[in-house]
Write a structure and sequence with these properties.
four-stranded antiparallel β-sheet; 432 residues; 3 domains; Chitinase A, domain 3; single chain; Triger factor/SurA peptide-binding fold; alpha+beta
Length: 432
């Protein structure tokens, strides 16, 4: 069975075959029912039924008990409503995930499963998943993620001073030098919540924590109470580098071991309960093998078919081998807007920076020897590895990790407030 891990490292995309909660019209035709009206759109009963079936099957496979059916239905419907609100918002601002971006994500999923991009439809079918449904669901997931980056992420700023302070704080820090597998229960509050609401939420958090201290199943309580995106998956956040752990959690993780549960953590508009599922020492990477590469890309389109694109690239390769300048050929022919005017130069890059086929060709190429034409999801390429080096990236790594750590902490809190505002502003009418 294939595993589909996408986006931000904490959300597992599971696509199930579409099932229909059908209704009969007066003429006897099957109709899909409406589970909820959301502004100018709807959530269909078929969507709700499909999600319930998917999550129930996953929980059964993991031995996890879900909330009672009526509560589970309510939770999943709310998740679908929130997704619909965000997709409507994305449509209003003209946000669209291109086929190129979608294919790139599918290629990444394929690589993670050690399968070829071209084999995905067949392998998905073996798991009972329609490829068109898979692409549609994945496009929606990517749209929501991109929307959050635009409307929340782009408003988040991390100063040089914050990064400097973060690096100083992390020196000799146990958390920074560890990797954590975490689970999480999130209890949210409205923006500018009253003292009574804060007290009620804190009391609920304390009750949940007491149950956990007495041996209650964390996954079941997460599924029942958490407002986090992985609540119905037991609240699992998966593995993350200690330097990427949100600042809010870092202080409590300092003295925690595998299996420990932290008392409720207060944030501006939420309470958090965090469990360390497992932890391990993280080896700080300080050196990386880099390659300096240039390439020429010919992209098939409605005018140039795949065979013609390859032929043009082969003709260019022959000219280069006969003395033509690689950089001039790239400026003349390459369809890569980022590198064409630079003579195809891509500069220095770490392993994993490019598409899988591109990476393999780099690894197999000798310095100064131009490759044979090869295909990626973007089109046909030739490349030349100009140089290789072992690069000490310790300082850059520290800065990137601290930037990400600070940004993730701010992003989590701001996303909660942003999503609550969208929900409050939306017209929602449940039909179940």
């Amino acid at each position: 069975m294939l595993k589909f891990n996408i986006l931000c490292a904490t959300v597992a995309l599971t696509v199930a075959p579409v099932t229909f909660a059908a209704e009969l019209s007066e003429t006897g035709e099957f109709l899909d029912g409406v589970a909820a009206i959301v502004n100018e759109g709807v959530v269909l009963k078929s969507q709700l039924t499909s999600q319930i079936a998917t999550i129930s099957e996953r929980a059964a496979a993991q031995g996890m008990q879900l909330p009672p059916p009526e509560i589970l239905e309510e939770q999943i419907l709310e998740r679908l409503i929130l997704t619909e609100i965000q997709l409507q918002r994305a449509d209003r601002i003209g946000l669209d995930i291109s086929d190129e971006i979608l294919n790139r994500q599918i290629a990444s999923i394929a690589q993670g499963n050690n399968v070829a991009f071209e084999d995905m439809p067949r392998l998905l079918a073996q798991d009972g998943i329609d490829y068109a449904t898979f692409r549609r669901t994945l496009r929606d997931e990517l749209t929501v993620e991109q929307l959050r980056r635009i409307e929340v992420g782009q408003r988040i700023n991390v100063s040089e001073r914050e990064i400097e302070q973060c690096i100083a704080d992390l020196e000799g820090n146990v958390v920074a030098n560890s990797e954590y597998e975490l689970s999480h229960i999130l209890l949210t509050m409205p923006e500018a919540a009253s003292s009574e609401v804060v007290a009620e939420t804190q009391d609920l958090a304390n009750q949940i924590y007491a149950q956990l201290e007495n041996g209650a199943d964390f996954r079941q309580l997460a599924a029942r109470y958490s407002a986090g995106p992985t609540a119905l998956e037991g609240g699992s956040l998966g593995w993350m580098d200690g330097q990427q752990v949100p600042t809010l959690f870092a202080d409590v993780l300092q003295d925690m071991e595998a299996g420990d549960i932290a008392p409720p953590i207060r944030a501006a508009s939420s309470f958090h309960i965090v469990r360390v599922d497992d932890l391990r020492s993280a080896v700080q990477r300080s050196e990386v093998n880099q390659s300096k590469v240039r390439h020429i890309l010919i992209m098939p389109d409605e005018i140039i078919d795949d065979a013609t694109a390859r032929q043009r690239l082969e003709e260019s390769l022959e000219k280069i081998r006969n003395g033509a300048d690689f950089g001039e050929q790239a400026k003349l022919l390459s369809d890569d807007p980022g590198s064409a005017n630079l003579g195809g130069e891509l500069g220095w890059a770490d392993p994993g920076s490019y598409a899988p086929e591109f990476e393999r060709t780099i690894a197999d190429s000798e310095i100064g020897v131009i490759s044979e034409p090869f295909r990626t999801q973007f089109g046909w390429h030739i490349l030349e590895v100009q140089e290789r080096r072992v690069y000490d990236n310790t300082e850059e790594l520290k800065q990137r990790n601290c930037d990400l750590r600070i940004r993730n902490g701010k992003m989590e809190e701001e996303s909660q407030l942003w999503m609550q505002r969208l929900r409050d502003e939306a017209f929602v009418e449940s039909r179940i």
